[in-house]
Amino acid sequence: xxxxxxxxxxxxxxxxxxxxxxxxxxxxxxxxxxxxxxxxxxxxxxxxxxxxxxxxxxxxxxxxxxxxxxxxxxxxxxxxxxxxxxxxxxxxxxxxxxxxxxxxxxxxxxxxxxxxxxxxxxxxxxxxxxxxxxxxxxxxxxxxxxxxxxxxxxxxxxxxxxxxxxxxxxxxxxxxxxxxxxxxxxxxxxxxxxxxxxxxxxxxxxxxxxxxxxxxxxxxxxxxxxxxxxxxxxxxxxxxxxxxxxxxxxxxxxxxxxxxxxxxxxxxxxxxxxxxxxxxxxxxxxxxxxxxxxxxxxxxxxxxxxxxxxxxxxxxxxxxxxxxxxxxxxxxxxxxxxxxxxxx
Length: 344
Fold this sequence. Notes:
InterPro entries: Diguanylate_Cyclase (IPR050469), GGDEF_dom (IPR000160), MASE6 (IPR048435), Nucleotide_cyclase (IPR029787), Rev_trsase/Diguanyl_cyclase (IPR043128). This protein is an alpha+beta fold. It has 10 helices and 7 strands.
């Protein structure tokens, strides 16, 4: 799976923003010329500026990723223009119908939290504008207000439910793609996604590659159900021991941890402490007291190095730890770390 496929929400909002810029920019340019010729210069000027902004946004998004502020600015500008147009025009011209498109636009571009705020704000301001428009027939005013309110709330409700359902489905699919179903740790795709997309500052980043020593013997002696629970317990222990690290299951009994440390000594100390913690922790599963040890290979990020190169470097050290007796920690500096003292 392509890493970019995991950012389906960003891709959706980028496409929506591009097409909205194309549509609203074209419509706004047309009405800008119409309003200038009609003598409504301020509204015409606002619509012209908005058209230019839409053109710039389309050009920018063709070369760069979507930023959230771009969605916010787009919604703010559209809301301002629609509300101002309603303020200076009479209801008989029907410009208020553009307000019905705003909840859909806001929810698609910004999600539920901002969508509900913008939709509620638009409803409040639009209501004040329409109530300020006097009519000789109060019954007509009341009927129109009720119908407009119900129509707007209906569209708002549908937008809210749809966006909530879409966001929840997207989150579930992302979890299925990124999480190991047995242990709840990240999988290889999750590790690639974290390193390539989420980890912006890779300075002082270290990768621990861990392997459970003689894990096959546990499966053979106690069964695969017990073995699966051992893997789950190990994943939990890793998350607790290295609270700020990111834990991934990269093989049957292999785990990787990506963590940032202030120095190499601090990273090596943490790896040795982790090895000792596992060694001293009894795993009580289905009445069995299971003792485990792990072997760890450590590698650090070098300038412009890829995750694959770091993984290979850590794997070489892990292989050395297993070949030279297991239950050891080796780092890419080729020095064995058994002599590091870990406080009790």
